[in-house]
Amino acid sequence: MNRGWQVVLSSPDVLYFDFPYEADPKEHGYYWASRHTNTEKVFQFMPDNLPVHAEFWLDRQDNAYTADDTKTPLKSDHHFLGIQGQLWSENTRTDNVAQYKIFPRLFALAERAWHLAEWAVPYNYKGAVYDQQSHVFTEKMKEKRDQQWTVFANTIGQKALPKLENDNIFYRLPTVGGVIKNGTLMANIAFPGIAIEYKVDNKEWKLYSMPVAVSKDVKVRAISFDGKRKGRTTTIAFE
User: Fold this and answer.
1) What is the pTM of this model?
2) Is the dihedral of CA 55, 61, 67, 73 positive or negative?
3) What's the rounded Cα separation, in Å, for the pair 79 and 48?
4) Is the C-alpha dihedral spanning 44, 45, 49, 50 positive or negative?
5) What is the pLDDT of residues 132-165, one digit of tens each?
6) CA 141, 48, 121 angle in degrees (round to 5)?
7) Are the C-beta atoms of residues 24 and 94 closer than 8 Å to each other?
8) Does 47 share its domain with 149?
């Protein structure tokens, strides 16, 4: 960059789509630069200011880290030409696996490539040190980012994914999250609009639409719009 080269950024910690969505052995992908890269992480990316991510991201072992940008900061007004997502295919051997890894992360990649978020932290050409105590990315910025993510996630779940399904694209169904509190199962999903199912013991799967009373461990999963595909099953422990 400082030598005047035009650089397209393809940072492995967020733009390598051969990495897993979640830190789970059932998720396909490498993890040498990032143990997990979900769609929200791609949405959070600020490509004009790489070191600032030390304030809220973790390293590949899920530890906090420090980014010292004071030694060789960019020269004034230098910036990246663009960003590019990578899908290295040496262990991606079918179309379904490729589509699973690309979608829906590709939507967030396009958003960050073509839209400068109003919550993004401008690059400090004087150099700076960032960690989880520096707070250059303010609470107000975080609140604005998270509000926009909610809108973006709803758009993906209710508009974009049904279109992919209609085109026979094997997108990734998100893993359902949940908790049982005071005998009540409360479940959620990253992309509202995708249905959730739950099951107790070996009984039939039921559609989850609101918190429900349970007395045992519960299994939950997402289901595609046409009902033909099921997401990865998660067990919610009863306490």
Assistant:
1) 0.95
2) negative
3) 7
4) positive
5) 999 999 999 999 999 999 999 999 999 999 999 9
6) 20
7) no
8) yes
Q: Structurally, how many domains does the chain consist of?
A: 2
Which residue ranges in the chain fall short of pLDDT 50? none
- Residues, the chain, total? 239
Residue 89 and residue 120 in one domain: yes
Instruction: Identify whether residues 81 and 100 lie together within a single domain.
Output: yes
SS3 annotation, the chain: CCCCCCCEECCHHHHECCCCCCCCCCCCCCCCCCCCCCHHHHHHCCCCCCHHHHHCCCCCCCCCCCEECCCCCCCCCCCCCEECCECCCCCCCCHHHHHHHHCCHHHHHHHHHHCCCCCCCCCCCCCCEECCCCCCCCHHHHHHHHHHHHHHHHHHHHHHHHHHHHCCCCCCCCCCEEEEECCEEEEECCCCCCEEEEEECCCCCEEECCCEECCCCEEEEEECCCCCCECCCEEECCC
